[in-house]
Write a structure and sequence with these properties.
20% strand; Rossmann fold; alpha/beta
Length: 196
């Protein structure tokens, strides 16, 4: 049996699903405030001065701190059912189906959120390593439980899987954050192309 490690945003999906989810769940006040609280961070990210993990932490705090976990979970379920099917790459879905038909373990490894990736993975029979929102005193803290998984993909994979048990490891990614994950694999695809 093989192990397939698959990034989600821009690999399985055609877009940044995390940003879309945030824009959809943010209140009008949060969206207005984001121009000043998140805008400079976004500009820094686009200029290569701010990393994806730092930007994720910032927007996660802005949007989720103090929110009701049940409300966010319900929004995630709707997003998984209504939006995600419209942004999937058919070739990647075929690749995932190929791995599943062979009996491979297929794990989605993402810096995005479990509130929408978990229901999607359950529908497709995939395992999941991703960011989870922390709850304190019945409300979301605006932080990740156990830190940002996106920036620590390879460490999370090693902690969860005994890589020596698999005949071959396949990895699919598209970003700088995915490179340590790709380095774990025998077969690597970066932005849809095989790499040595």
């Amino acid at each position: 049996m093989d192990l397939a490690l698959v990034d989600f945003d821009h690999t399985v999906s055609t877009c940044d699903t995390y940003a879309r989810f945030l824009r959809g769940i943010a209140s009008p006040e949060q969206l207005a405030r984001a121009k000043w609280t998140v805008g400079p961070w976004l500009l820094g990210y686009r200029m290569g001065l701010v990393g994806a993990a730092a930007l994720r932490r910032r927007v996660t705090r802005e949007v989720f701190a103090g929110r009701d976990p049940a409300e966010v979970a319900a929004a995630g379920e709707r997003y998984a059912a209504d939006v995600l099917p419209t942004v999937l790459r058919p070739l990647m879905m075929e690749q995932i189906a190929w791995h599943r038909a062979r009996g491979d373990t297929v794990a989605l490894v993402s810096g995005s959120l479990d509130v929408y990736l978990r229901p999607w993975c359950e529908r497709h029979g995939l395992e999941l390593l991703c960011n989870q929102l922390e709850v304190e005193d019945g409300r979301l803290s605006g932080r990740y439980l156990d830190g940002d998984r996106g920036a620590q993909k390879a460490a999370g994979i090693r902690a969860r899987y005994d890589l020596s048990r698999y005949a071959r490891i396949h990895a699919y990614g598209d970003s700088r954050e995915d490179r340590p994950m790709l380095a774990l694999a025998h077969e690597r695809w970066y932005r849809g192309s095989p790499v040595a």
